[in-house]
Specification:
mainly alpha; elongated
Length: about 200
């Protein structure tokens, strides 16, 4: 019998390989042959799953965005809901380890392109809407649990949280020696505690 192939898993593997290549080489220098090599595939296999290079690049961006969304939405399994847990969750999306740094490099590559590409700008905006909605919901849950001051407007708080993450993430990606993991986390902790006053 022919070997059964999990096509969705294969698409994810190729997208992950594209993330790796873009993170190391940038978008302009990322070639299909490089992605194929990283994925352990042929260029023909890549074109079987993706119509063109642009479709592959967008899949790489989505792969990064979905990983960020997973981190932001993942609920703590042992600890009760708290501002501490929300801040800890926010810290996980910073470039505090090799994979995170690579994801941020990819994200910044696409942000640069989105400045002049309206379609990409719309896609980028849609991800931020999802990021904002997830954080806003977490803020509301904290308020309902009596852990966070009700004077805070959840959407505005979520925008502030995202701005803090973006600011630290950009600086750390561009200047990693000055922004090691502990500095990133302590800075974000200080900023978010000012944004999210507890009762």
């Amino acid at each position: 019998m022919p070997k059964k192939i999990d096509h969705e898993a294969r698409r994810r593997d190729i997208a992950e390989a594209a993330v790796q290549v873009i993170g190391e080489q940038g978008i302009d220098n990322a070639r299909l042959i490089d992605v194929a090599r990283a994925a352990g595939a042929t260029t023909g296999a890549i074109t079987h799953y993706f119509d063109d290079k642009n479709a592959l690049l967008l899949a790489a961006l989505d792969h990064v965005a979905q990983r960020i969304l997973h981190e932001l939405h993942a609920a703590p399994t042992q600890n009760p809901i708290s501002v501490d847990n929300l801040i800890a969750r926010a810290c996980t999306v910073l470039p505090i380890h090799e994979e995170g740094m690579r994801d941020w490099r990819v994200w910044l590559c696409f942000l640069g392109r989105a400045v002049a590409d309206t379609a990409l700008a719309r896609i980028n905006k849609s991800y931020y809407v999802e990021f904002r909605d997830g954080i806003s919901s977490a803020v509301e849950r904290l308020q309902n649990a009596g852990k966070l001051d009700n004077i805070i407007e959840p959407g505005a708080a979520a925008d502030s949280v995202l701005a803090a993450i973006d600011g630290i993430g950009v600086r750390a990606t561009l200047d990693p020696e000055e922004w090691p993991a502990e500095r990133q986390k302590s800075q974000l902790d200080a900023m978010l505690r000012a944004i999210l006053p507890t009762r």
